[in-house]
Amino acid sequence: MSAIISRTESFCSRFGLRVPILLAPMAGTCPPSLSIAVSSAGGLGAGGVLMMQPDEILTWANEVRAASNGAFQLNVWIPDPPPQRDPAHEARVREFLAQWGPAVPPEAGNATLPDFAAQCEAMLTAGPRIVSSIMGLYPPDYVAKLKARGIAWFATASTVAEARAAEAAGADVIVAQGAEAGGHRGAFTAADAERRLVGLFALLPAVVDAVRVPVVATGGIADARGIAAALVLGASAVQIGTGFLRCPEAKIHPAWADALAQTAPEDTVVSRVFSGRPGRAIVTDYVRAATADSAPPPAPYPVQRGLTTAMRAQGQKAGDVHRMQAWAGQSAALASAEPAAALVQRLWDEARAIVG
Ligand SMILES: Cc1cc2nc3c(=O)[nH]c(=O)nc-3n(C[C@H](O)[C@H](O)[C@H](O)COP(=O)(O)O)c2cc1C
What we know:
Number of strands: 11
Strand content: 5-15%
Bound molecules: flavin mononucleotide
Number of helices: 13
Distance between the termini: 9 Å
């Protein structure tokens, strides 16, 4: 057996998988149906709980567990320090956004997220095999609680230094997130997220060399060639986000799903224009206008998220992708519109044929 296959098999047997393909946690875009389909094909499901209250986290986990073998991870963002508010600047952003959607009241910027500590407790209660993190590290006492319950910690890292820090803090697996990735970048410090854009081809072998724990590759992987390349570069498994978004079980708006199919790598960009935290999305009309020099810079996270809520809701209702939050990785056009379980099986069959 090749060294690659033996590496993936040891990863799979440790985490109860048949296939080394992980659904990426995607807050707001992770209906139970998608995880149920991925885990039924032997992969790992994922719940991105960032915007869920504790009872919603438990409901999500119960629903997935009841209809699957229970192979899933739960994921939350490590919070940033509170934003510095600037009412005069927010007024300029609100005026700009009113050209794209309804008028934005000043209090829209006060939007808050569910309590992080309560979410962390709910993830423990939900009892998944794996809890993952992005944008930082869990505090040591929470890491100890995970370990006491036999829950593995998968830590997202977007640089070698972050991967080393995560391993030192007790992470069981590093998820190396290349700059190709769709959605928010995992940089521990928000200011670094747009500056340190390390592509997966450089990041992955460097992280594999830097840590002793297994490494999962993520960012721009959406077909068997990408999976095989990641395994050759030292990954034990791959994590796919955008590549699952066109599956019917993902239930995203058809306008967004259709746009993904037309999106070349250069048609995506990392910007702060939706939430205030850098993330990669399709260059829609709004993204183009909001990233122009003439536009006011976005407010910090999560203020910008609150300010753009009304525009995004209107875009969603109208089926207008140009005003939706159309996250996409650079390999968006490779995303296949087929049932997720069939996709997992096909991707792994094809990747195995390549790596031998
Ligand atoms: C719609 C969307 C939402 C995401 N939300 C999260 C999240 O809540 N937590 C997280 O760790 N990563 C999140 N990500 C990043 C993914 O976990 C992963 O790094 C990324 O999808 C990999 O790149 P790809 O989209 O090219 O496959 C999100 C990605 C997308 C596309």
